[in-house]
Task: structure prediction
Amino acid sequence: MKGRNMTRWRDPAKDPRQAPKSNLITAEGAARLRGILDHLSRVKRPELSAKVGEAAALGDRSENADYTYNKKEL
Result:
């Protein structure tokens, strides 16, 4: 066993766990995902940031459920 590498090498070309080399999303699917991302970044994130700021202004953050919940949502 001296000098022998004990890891199992897999040929990437034959590995079934590798994703196929093709487009896996349609143009409509990509547009829908862009819309969701746009909504999250322009609407949802500012709302949650404001809520976190309001909850943080209340003081003690260790037992502030609003702060903890909204911070996790970000």
